[in-house]
Write a structure and sequence with these properties.
Length: 113
């Protein structure tokens, strides 16, 4: 059985609109546990295929792509640029124009599998 927090994280990630991003920490906060950014990362890693999550729309709190390898960073950047996300430098996103402004998880629609 999946926890309510995990379900909320999945719902949030599924609903990030094209051309927008959210940080691991903001997702954790919206899902009810502001100190669980690492758990969000784990959920994203373990559930992307199963739930067809737009993983590339999740970044770190500083607006940076958080992947380690240059190839993976460039792949994520390419996906985001195709959606119109603006970058300030090599891997740092312009959060002013790209952050998804959602105040509550209650505002999202649930996508059924």
């Amino acid at each position: 059985m999946v926890s309510e927090f995990t379900e909320d994280v999945i719902k949030l990630i599924q609903n990030i609109p094209e051309g927008k991003v959210l940080s691991y920490g903001l997702i954790a906060k919206l899902a009810g546990n502001p100190r669980a950014a690492r758990q969000v990362s784990w959920i994203l890693h373990s559930s992307t295929e199963k739930y067809k999550l737009p993983w590339h729309r999740v970044i770190n709190s500083e607006g940076n792509i958080a992947l380690r390898s240059e190839i993976d960073k460039q792949y994520q950047k390419d996906l985001l640029k195709k959606e119109g996300v603006k970058f300030l430098d090599e891997y740092r996103i312009d959060l002013k124009s790209s952050i998804w402004n959602i105040e509550s998880i209650d505002k999202i629609k649930v996508k059924k599998e």
